[in-house]
Amino acid sequence: MSLWADKYRPRNTQQLDFHPTITKRLKSLATSGDFPHLLVYGPSGAGKKSRILATLKELYGSSVEKLKVDIKTFVTPSNRKLEFNVISSPYHIEITPSDMGNNDRIVIQDLLKEVAQVESIDFTNLVSHDASHSHQPNKKKFKVVVINEAESMTRDAQAALRRTMEKYSANIRLVLVCNSTSNIIDPIKSRTLSIRVPAPSISDFTVAFDKILSKEQDARRIYPQSEADKLVVYKHIAEASERNLRMGIMMLEALYMNSDKITTTTKMIIPDWELVIDDIASSIIKDRSVTRLSQTRTILYELLAHSIPAKLILKRMTLQLWKQTESIGSFKNLDAVKLDIVNAAALFDERLSLGNKAIFHLEGFVTRVMVILEKDLS
Amino acid sequence: MSLGGEFKFNFSNSVLFGASKNEKDELKQSQTTNLSTTDHKTTAPTQRTEKQEDEDEYEPVYMNPNVFTPTVKEFVSSSGQKIFLKPKATSLEAVLSKNDDLDNINNKLDDQSSLINMSKLYTKLEIQEKIEQEEQNFKKNSLKPAFTGQGILPISRKQKKNADKLWTEKYRPCNFLDLVGNEKTNRFILQWLTQWNEMALNKPNPPKSNGFNGGTNRPNSYQQQQQQQQQQQQQQPDPFNRPKHRILLIHGPPGIGKTSIAHAIARQLDYYIQEINASDERAGTKVKDKILNVMKNSNFSGKPACLIVDEIDGASEFGFMRFLNDLIYEDKKATNKMIHERDSKSKKQKDKNAKGLLKRPIIALCNDVYANALEKLKPHCEIVQLRKPPRHLILSTLKKICKKEHLQVSEKFLGFLVDSTDGDLRNCINFLQFNNSSDFLDGTASRLSSKDSQISWFLLLNDVFSRSHRFSKTEQFNSLFNRLSSAPSSIDKVNNGCFNVILDLENTSLHKLDQTQDWVFFNDIIKTKFSDFERTDLTYYNCVAPMRFFQIFNDIGAINDSKRYSYKSKDETFESKKQISEMIRKLKFASLGTNEMNLIKYELPLLNMIMTPVDANNKSLEHSTEKMQHIYNLIDEYHFGFEFKKPEFSADRSRIHQTTQIFKPNLDLCSISIGTVDHRKNVLMNKIHTGYTNHVGKNNNSNSTTTTEEYILRKRKRKEETAAAEPDSKKRSEQGKKSSGSAVSTVDFFRSKYSTFASHVTHGKDKDAKDGNSRGENGAAENKNESSHRNVMNDNENRIWVKYHEGFSNAVRKEIQWQDLF
Questions:
Q1: Peptide bond into B173 cis (omega under 30)
Q2: What is any one GO biological process for this UniProt entry (chain B) (predicted)?
């Protein structure tokens, strides 16, 4: 028993609910015997990983679920030892090279080569060679390497991947998983079959939620009985979770744990860091002064201390400012203000990526926004 | 010995050295030319130089500094031939024959190469010059002490008594009462160490006070007490009543007295202190023998040793950490074995000399508790954090020292000193000592800047913002610029300081702040480039941002002296960031989420909501077994543990220090609550914990298939525990609800209880007074209400918890009557 998101995760291709065309395509790929390098991309929580795992299961059978976690050590050229987690089954390996930051190239070079150079021999196939299995000679000859967060790999690592993909194509197949392909270099794109997994629609959410609630009787009791109300609640959840299904299911669970009765007016659970940022945004609009700034500073420190990436803070804040300036409506030139805010956000976003001191630039952004607002109002 | 004498000794050694080399050459010669070896003392400088040229021809094989020993020296050559060297009087013949020898060789050389070896000649010349020089030096130096040495000596000896000792050593606290700050933590350390009494000192342990688990945390309700007892039962009772975690790990920033505390407390309890620090060789095997020796045996003083491992986070040597881990592991094994044996024989046989048992306390000290090296050790450690003592305490300590040393120092200056060292007491004392001779101590801060670079960043910062009357702005600009660019190492600090200060300036405004942004960014970029690409040529631009600050903000009275620069908040930010990233790493490893970003973004907050649902409109949680079951399952799935939350050291003195259960890893960390502690959550957590322990107990009872002895042992304990807990559980939940409701006003709660149990209480009161007296005799440093806790606890019929806090420290002792509490 675990979180619902894990508990009700589709295990095989039959359980995959939405995007039937993609499922069908993957299925036919798995049964065709050969298998290309894949580049699976789409927003998080759309079911990329589930689809890949289901395909793998189709390809190799249930033994891909026998996962184990290994810790491999690598030595950098500067003689530092690095530890790296590898999740593997007899047939596939899952790695997240971006864990290693700038050293991901070494992981790609060492680990992939190591895997690629060993030809996997399937004994069951050998034994029953002349039996019925002989018509799929190519099957299971290769291992699959799943690379998570492929877009955050460095250029070097991606370049290291290029040649490996061709040279050892007899032994390994790569599945790159990423949110967007914009950071993937073209040579890799051209070597892979790209599959886009879009975020599920609201009706997809409904199907998934209904499936879960039909199995969780206690929770079913709490959610509204009437079909129409239920759909409204689902819609709320889907919107609050930005159509991220995993997040949506977790929210479904959190709502169940937190309330006695869920109605159409039940407030969605928003992560507290978002609430805090929204709070900053509204307070900036209301009160533009140095004392407010120093209060904001402590909150920003707090946020950063909670490992919330500075860019995420900036993004959320900008969006909130955008929204809230609209709703207040006391600005003389609303469009100009909004434009200026977005300009400032762009400027400080650049500074955040170039510099090191996140707090300086976040506060700089807040100051700049205050100045912009002040200028318009006075 | 005077200086000159020493020098002479050295010099003569160097003469010796040359001679021995020559001798070696001759040894070689003797082997080739079959001449009898002769030893010779070279005394005449001319002869010496002559032989030095041999050195160029023959590499010395080895050196023997003992040429002048009067005994016969014996060498064995590579061919097995024995050669005897005798301290023989130099005969003219021998010298002559040797000279011949030299000539021969010279001739041979000349034959081989008809050209004159210029480089050889040149070196020869050089050597000669050097020798002459040295001789002159020697003469000079040997003369000097004749005049001065005698005179100086007595004076320096006199000074030695006082001045020799560093003040930091001199004023190192030597007993418990001398320690500055952190009273609670100190007491906790003391308590921890007293738990070793039975094992190490052959003294009985002091009675286990309720608060063993904390000088830092104390149960403040009946319910929590119950839980704590449960917990204590749960962990295996130690046959020697040693503390649960065998190693005490103290961490904190430098210079706040970690080492001092460890030493002072160990000394207080009469331990012999064996210290191992970073300066010692800490590679595996070497230190192993040392420690084992200390830990197993007693030394001549008859005191048992207490091992203090200083600077443990610097112990990069892998072996050392592993060895400590082995020590703990073996101890665990031995203890388990002992408990088991005791159970089976049903006789209390305590064999202290059992193999592998840890018999002496170990205290480890470190700065960074999150260091990788400590990863393995941490689960076995009782971790205690020392914080910087509050400013006024440092100040008063410094004042005391100044008084003792007859130093006239203004308080303002001391304040500056404390701030500039970031509350590093040791640094402050050091500064005082080494500037005490100069008279500038009572001077203004600006005069200091030129003297001491250690604190100058702070004064530089001051100069950035405060306008001087004497100079024009341009002049000041130039001087500041010069000073900033000449102190590249402190610019970073100045920059951060500027950032910390600009919001509090008198003349600050949004527009001014906005104007600085570009330069702050510029500075950040320069720094990034500098650290990433080692562009040292860019350091010059470093001081641009402070100069910009100067330009915009510098004004008379801009910076307010009374305002304190908050160095603390930043430290704490990093501390908590480290904690959180550690937690994230752990959870990620437990394959909770896939992506770190997603984990931070929504999974953790949502998980937190799922595990501890505290939404206000959720009243039925306690009654919904399904929901509780779901939480228990999640706890199992993700291997969460429970631990006591150590109460925050808050400035808010009135707040009652709450002891609560938290998850381990602490999910709570990820939620940002700017405000007060959520009371509901605490109650809920306690409930979850109780429920979970019951749940686990039931599970264990139902499956009794496993047969390992240890497991049975544990199960038996659980059974007892659940049996004990069962009848109580109803009562407890009721109590829990009440305490949650009454948390706002504990007094009300007790008043209602009082009415119901009035008779019992009066009964208890008498008892109380009696026991209170006896405790007073014991003189334990616990306040009285604590003793009353225990007494009421003894009264099994009705347990009422009273907690009384005066101030934030329990050190305050006050006579309290029951009337005062109701």
A1: no
A2: DNA replication
The alpha-carbon gap from B523 to the nearest alpha carbon of chain A, in Å, equals 9
Q: What is the pLDDT of residues B498-555, one digit of tens each?
A: 887 777 777 778 888 888 888 888 888 888 877 777 666 777 777 788 888 888 877 7
Residues 6+ apart with CB under 8 A from B425: B180, B255, B256, B257, B389, B394, B397, B398
Whether A30 and A36 have beta carbons less than 8 Å apart is answered as: no
Instruction: State the complex-level ipTM.
Output: 0.78
pLDDT at A346 over 70: yes
Decide if B521 and A361 are in contact by the 8 Å CB cutoff.
yes
Crossing angle for the helix pair B604-611 and A245-258, nearest 10 degrees?
Answer: 20
Query: Does residue B18 contact residue B48 with C-beta atoms inside 8 Å?
Result: yes
Highest mean pLDDT pick, A303-317, B171-185, B634-648, B796-810: A303-317
Name residues whose C-beta falls within 8 Å of residue A35's C-beta, 6 or more positions apart in sequence.
Answer: A29, A59, A142, A144, A173
- Residues in B closer than 8 angstroms to A147, CB to CB, are none
Cα gap A4→A237, rounded to integer Å: 15
Does position B719 have pLDDT exceeding 70, yes or no? no
Which of A254, A307, A356 is nearest residue B600 as measured by Cβ atoms? A307
CA dihedral A238, A244, A245, A250 (to 10 degrees): -80
**A37-46, pLDDT tens digit by residue?**
999 999 988 8
Amino acid in the structure at residue B437: S
**Nearest chain B residue (CA) to A277:** B672
**Which of B203, B210, B256, B206 shows the shortest CA–CA distance to B231?**
B210
**Pairing mode of beta strands A68-75, A193-196:** unpaired
C-alpha torsion angle, residues B404, B407, B409, B414 (rounded to 10): -50
d(CA B595, CA A146) in angstroms, rounded, equals 14
Quote the crossing angle between the two packed helices A290-305 and B567-589, to the nearest 10°.
30
Measured between CB atoms, does B626 come within 8 Å of chain A?
Answer: yes
Q: Does A355 touch chain B (CB under 8 A)?
A: yes
The answer to whether residue B616 neighbours chain A at the CB level (below 8 Å) is no
pLDDT in tens, B195-247: 877 776 666 666 544 433 433 333 344 444 444 444 444 444 566 677 777 78
Structure tokens at B783: 């306040």
Query: Do residue A354 and residue B624 have CB atoms under 8 angstroms apart?
Result: no
Q: Please answer yes or no on whether B610 and A69 come within 8 Å at the CB atom.
A: no
User: Domains of chain B (ranges plus CATH)?
Assistant: 3-147 (no CATH), 173-200+237-385 (3.40.50.300), 391-565 (no CATH), 570-742 (no CATH), 746-821 (no CATH)
With tokens 């600085």, the residue in question is: B516
Side by side, the strands of the sheet bearing B381-385 are: B272-276, B305-309, B362-366, B247-251, B381-385
CA distance B8 to A334: 89
If one compares B739 and B115, the residue with the highest pLDDT of the two is: B115
Interchain CB distance below 8 Å, B617 and A218:
no
Which residue is it, tokens 């064999």?
Answer: B351
Shortest Cα distance from B524 to chain A (angstroms)? 5
Q: Is A138 on the interface with B (CB under 8 A)?
A: no
Q: Is the pLDDT assigned to residue A318 strictly greater than 90?
A: yes
Pick the closest to residue B167 from B436, B452, B433, B421 (CA basis).
Answer: B433
**CA nearest B818: which of B776, B763, B778, B781?**
B763
pLDDT of residue A175: 92
Q: What are phi and psi of A72, to 5 degrees?
A: -105, 145
Q: What is the pLDDT of residues B444-459, one digit of tens each?
A: 444 444 334 444 666 7
